[in-house]
Amino acid sequence: MSFYLHTRRFKVIFPLYVALGLIFPVLYGANVLQKPADINSYTTDALGELVFATVLLVGLLAGDAISQDFGRQGFFTLTQPVRRSEIMLARTLAAFTISAFAMVVWVGIGLVSGYMFYTAVVANAALILAQSLLLVGAVVSFVVLFSSLFRSPTVSVVISVLVVWFIMPIITGVLELVAVEPWFLITYAGGVVVNLAMSSYPAHVVATSASGGAGAPTITVTVYNPYVWEATTIMVAYLVVSLVLAWLVYSRKELTEAS
Amino acid sequence: MGFLATGMELVADGLVKRLGSTMALDGVSFKLEGRGCFGYLGPNGAGKTTTMKLFTNLLRPTRGRATINGVDVTKEPSVALKAVGSLVEEPEPYQFMRVREFMEFASRIRERRVDEAEMKRISERLDLPAPDAICSKLSKGLKRRVFLAALLVQGTDILVLDEPTAGLDPAESVVFRNIVLELKKEKLIFLSSHLLFEVTQVCDSVIFLKRGKIIETGAVEDLTRKYTSKALRVEFSGRVPTAAFDTLKAEGVVSSFEVEGERLYLFRFDGKEETRKSLVDRLYPLGVRNIYDAQLGLEQAYMELMK
Fold it and tell me: Do residues B168 and B125 share a domain?
């Protein structure tokens, strides 16, 4: 874990991440924005960007968790009498711990500032925290899988971020237009964190139609909100399947040449 | 090959390794046992590093087995590698780790506690950089020394060293060779090198590898004798017309001859005793001042084997 604390990446990303988490509390606190009517709306705003920010944070921090072993560092690490499964688990736990720490800071800011403004905490605070931690675990595992596939740490970081930050949201957007539930996307499951902060959990399917006027075609956007059990299942599946696949790749990979 | 059996054993059992379309190792078998230094010689691409990687779990054999003290490296790497410290290719220390931290980490992995005095002794001996220097910022040579220090603090019975003096300056290479000479009294050292003089100085036995196959093995002394006996260096008391030597070559007594000085010649022959006698009988009438076995040692062996 000290590896992550020492990286320039962490030193740059962590303050930015916290700054993002502080935007709404500070704007509301300074009365730049009018405070929402209730604690639920406030918390929803405060946690609004949590999923995407966390996904980016994890991608940047853990994107090279395994691939670093397929560079010259591996000539030391992999020749030691330590099981690769243990190395992988240690790296995953370190990435999870540091990412979870950052995420807890963000959620903490949202909950504590909410209490300061409303002297109340959202009813689902504990569940929000638990789902957030599960989300971090799932994303870390998914990123570790990418990290085991690529020899170059830089490539694995970039690919991880591209997949979870760009490709998945694009797929979600396309599926909203064709009314298909994106049940296989971790970013879809992550939506549960914000949904839990709402005063009433949103409906599973929300279809909105828009027309450009008379004679213009009508566009229907179908937004899916994951059930809590569904989101939990998706995240657990990501966590388990990714780790198993990462282990299969990592345990069989050879160090033919260092990148 | 080997000396006193002490439970230190490296066995290559029909090792085959295919890397893409290249057959990097083609049925390599050997057994190294007991204390001593075993050299692994061969030109680039012969399969030396591939073998070292198979013994350190960086590669998996296509066929065959690499075992350490009877334990299969591929099947039980964490058990097999307990006995082995290795320096393969150019490892990179962990980012941000300091020299002292790295050495302590290396010893902790082996569940070994290194006391202050030993740490100081190793640091002084290898002239290590300051303990708080950050490893990843060190020069190539200094990093190499830090890894050698890590090997020493790990204190394993077997050392696998792949061209260990690569990147070291001449003074560092001498220090390293002296360390190997000392360590081989109590450890099994498997060392690959391009440097024949290095192997001659530190190794007891040698394996020659060519295109993934073993082509010769033996004790350094035996090989030196074997290949040395195939050449005679002769100093004549006066000038001798080379036409006389052309005749020897035409008759098949010598395979070749080289002019090494005004009156100094090197004659290569098949190494048979009767040929040697015949050659000496033919040369003496030409006015020989000195005649002796050419001391070409392993270099000669290497050149002949790699033809």
Answer: yes
Which of B191, B225, B259 is a domain's end point? Answer: B225
- On whether residue B1 sits in a domain, the answer given is no
Provide the pLDDT for residue B2: 42
Q: Determine phi and psi for B161, rounding to 5 degrees.
A: -120, 115
Residues from chain A contacting residue B58 (CB–CB below 8 Å): 74-75, 78-79, 254-255
What's the pLDDT band for B3 if we cut at 50, 70, 90? very low
Shortest Cα distance, chain A CAs vs residue B78, angstroms: 4
Give A243 to chain B, closest Cα distance, Å. 21
Q: Would the pLDDT of B140 be above 90?
A: no
Cα radius of gyration (chain A): 20
pLDDT band, very low/low/confident/very high, at B6 (cuts 50, 70, 90): low
Flag whether residue B58 sits within 8 Å of chain A, measured between CB atoms. yes
Q: Minimal Cα distance from A5: which residue of B?
A: B96
Could you tell me if B133 and B254 lie in one domain? no
Cα A70 to Cα A152: distance, rounded to the nearest angstrom = 8
Return the CATH number at B60: 3.40.50.300
Claim to verify: residue B97 and residue B198 sit in the same structural domain:
yes
pLDDT reading at B67 higher than 80: yes
A96: distance to nearest CA of chain B, Å?
Answer: 20
pLDDT of residue A127: 92
* Contact: B78, A81; criterion CB under 8 Å: yes
Is residue A53's pLDDT more than 80?
Answer: yes
Flag if B58 and A6 touch (Cβ within 8 Å): no
Q: pLDDT at residue A163 above 90?
A: no
Picking from A24-28, A152-156, B22-26, B48-52, which range would have the lowest pLDDT averaged per residue? Answer: A152-156
The dihedrals phi and psi of B229, each to the nearest 5 degrees, come to -70, 0
Q: Report the predicted TM-score, pTM, of the whole model to 2 decimal places.
A: 0.79
Q: Which domain holds residue B89?
A: 9-225
What is the spatial distance between Cα B85 and Cα B74, in angstroms, rounded to a whole number? 16
- Grouping H, G, I as helix, E, B as strand and the rest as coil, residue A7 is coil
First-to-final CA distance of chain A: 24
Give the residue extent of every domain in chain A: 2-168+229-252
Q: B36, B3 in Cβ contact below 8 A? A: yes
- Tokens representing B39? 């050299």
Domain count, chain B: 2
- Do the Cβ atoms of B228 and B295 come closer than 8 Å? yes
